[in-house]
Each structure stands twice: as C-alpha cells, then as structure tokens.
Write a structure and sequence with these properties.
Layout (H helix, E strand, L loop, with lengths): L2 H20 L3 E8 L4 E9 L2 E5 L3 E5 L14 H12 L3 E6 L4 E7 L2 E2 L6 E5 L2 E2 L14 E6 L6 E6 L3 E3 L4 E7 L10 E2 L2 E2 L5 E4 L5 E5 L1 E2 L3 E2 L4 E6 L3
Parallel strand pairs: 1-10, 11-19, 12-20
Antiparallel strand pairs: 1-2, 3-4, 5-6, 6-7, 8-9, 8-10, 11-13, 13-16, 14-15, 14-18, 17-20
Keywords: Signal
C-alpha cells in the first residue's frame, strides 16, 4: 500500500473517530479497584447502548434512564460493559425498575456481601445517580471501587511522568476528592510523609508504572513514568 493510501486511510479513520465522538461517544479513563487488586485501569471508548446482565436482563444504558438526561449518550456503566467485553472479565448487576438502573453486584470475581458493596465515583466524587443515568464526557475518570464507603480516601498519585535513572523523583499522594495530602501511603516500596511526598529512584531506564496504596483507602490510578538513562 502506498504512503498516500496509508495517509488517506489514517485520515479517514481519525475523521470517523471524531464523528463518532461528536455523535455521542466518549474516550474516558476507567478504573476498577477490587477487594485485593486492580481489575482494570485504562482508557475506554464508549457509547450509550443496551446492557445485559445475568441477574438484571437487558435494558438501555444511555443516560436517559429515569429521565436523567434529555438525550442519549455514553455512561459510566456502558464504559464498564464495553471494558468487560474488550478485556475478558465479566460483571453482574440487578436492575431496579423504580430508578431504571442497575445496581452492580459483581465485577470479575469480587461480589458484594452483606456489608461490602460496589460504589461508583466520577472524577473522584461519589455519584448521586446510577451508572446508566450518569453520562460521561471525554477525559472523565470513572472509578468502580469495592467497599468504597468504608474507605477514608480515594488516592490520587501526582507527579512528573519523566525521570532519569538513578536520580530521585518526588511524587505526591493526595485525596482525589479534596486534594488533601495523604501520609503513610505506599508507593514503589516507599512511604509518603506528612505532606504526601514520596521519593523514588529507578535504577534503570524504561517505562515504570507505580500506584499509591493504603489499607484504609482506595488505590490510586497507575502513574506511568518514562525513565531515561542516567549520565
């Protein structure tokens, strides 16, 4: 295939993608934090569509649920459903006619208990409506977290995404909902101080992925750091 043909195909693909976004799709970041590990952490392109679960059956999931939005669009739960289909995990949820939405009961192998439940956060804030009612926009951060209501913080790891091998790099752990620094969080084997700061040193060049974790908190999104060779 000629370079001109490749350029034309690429341009056409970008045009189709842009048109799809304009027509109601969204490229968001989806994270699913299970009981003991991260189930998914990455970008997902989603549009509002019908959703089917074993417990709840098939229903629309496009933000018009319960008359929450006047026009259909991508939602938190449509993103969950698209990620499950694309990345090989499953989920389940009970559908309630009273609020025209699903209650997520299981993602992968983590099922709700009598005291632990799945919660939904959008841009680090607990949502006030269900996941099929809550529409999303490009760059939104959607988080499904297990037992979130018992957690003190939804951790967020901040800092540069470039570093040099054998040179210390400062990162900061904060509460994603308030920006408050969080002490005693573990990042790459180091512990954050009272101002949320933690210093990491990478011994070799390459791509490094780190997360912040704390026993009483929701794990952070991965921060991917490109480490250049040292002098």
């Amino acid at each position: 295939m000629s370079l001109f043909a490749l350029f034309t195909l690429a341009t056409f693909g970008l045009s189709v993608y842009a048109d799809t976004v304009q027509q109601g799709g969204a490229l968001i970041h989806l994270r699913i934090e299970g009981a003991t590990e991260t189930i998914f952490d990455g970008p997902i392109f989603t549009t509002g569509h019908n959703v089917t679960t074993a417990s709840g059956g098939t229903h629309h999931c496009d933000g018009t649920n319960n008359n929450q939005n006047p026009t259909p669009g991508p939602t938190c739960t449509s993103a969950l459903d698209d990620a499950a289909a694309a990345h090989g995990f499953t989920w389940d949820g009970t559908f309630f006619d009273s609020f025209d939405d699903y209650l997520v009961t299981r993602i992968a192998s983590d099922s709700e208990t009598s005291t632990e439940f799945w919660s939904l956060l959008l841009n680090y804030q607990l949502t006030t409506v269900g996941g099929c009612q809550q529409q999303v926009q490009n760059t939104d951060e959607v988080l499904f977290a297990f037992d979130a209501l018992s957690k003190a913080y939804a951790l967020k790891l901040e800092g540069p995404t470039n570093a040099t091998a054998n040179q210390p790099l400062q990162l900061t752990v904060v509460d994603g909902s308030t920006g408050t620094p969080v002490a005693n969080a573990e990042v790459g084997g180091q512990t954050s101080d009272g101002e949320g700061h933690v210093w990491l040193t990478f011994g070799s060049a390459g791509s490094q992925s780190v997360k912040a974790e704390k026993s009483d908190s929701i794990r952070s999104r991965s921060l991917v750091i490109d480490v250049a060779p040292g002098l």
